[in-house]
Every structure is written in structure tokens, then in C-alpha cells.
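Quick check before the chapter quiz. The format below is the same one you will see on the exam, so make sure you can read both the input and the output lines.
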Amino acid sequence: MSWGVEVIKRVNSPRVKILLDMYHVQIMEGDIIRKVRDNFQHIAHFHTAGNPGRHEMDDTQEMHYPGIARAIADLNYSGYIAHEYSPLRDPLKSLDETLAMFDV
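Here is the expected output.
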């Protein structure tokens, strides 16, 4: 994350932003909510997935996505959040649960 922010600062263009893939940031750095808050002005898009395994964002995962979703909403983010995961359960039910989690 810090490397990407540094690139953005050096390029100094409003057209260059970060796609924050929370799955990978959690694995590489952790502390998702703080990273979102500290770097929000440099983020254009979010990707989600449960960790470990890239599956549902439920209570078996490291990240608490309802809290992450509230933190993003508190910053008045109005862009896209892509759910990039491989459901283990019924895909439509899983997607409904995920969308409800992000409806804050």
C-alpha cells in the first residue's frame, strides 16, 4: 500500500489511483481499516474476498467485513466495491448475504 501511494504521489495525476484489493492487502500488510482511512484520497475502487481461501466473507474469516464496510461508508465513498471471491455455498445466497453486508 505504501509503495502504491508513493507512486501516486510521484505521478501526481488525478487519473492514477489505487484499486485496493483487501484480500491481498490483508495477507501482505493487514490493518485494512486504518489503511483505508489513511489513504482514502488515493483509492478509486475496492475488491473483497474472505481470507483465508478467497471465499465468503463470513465469521470464519480473518477480516470483519461489516466493520470494513461501515468504515468505507463513513468516508462517503460512492464508487464501486467488487466482490471477487469463490463461494463455497449456494452462489446466489452467498451473493445476497454479501450484498446485505455492504448495504450500510
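If your answer matched, good. The beta strands are 18-21, 43-48, 81-83.
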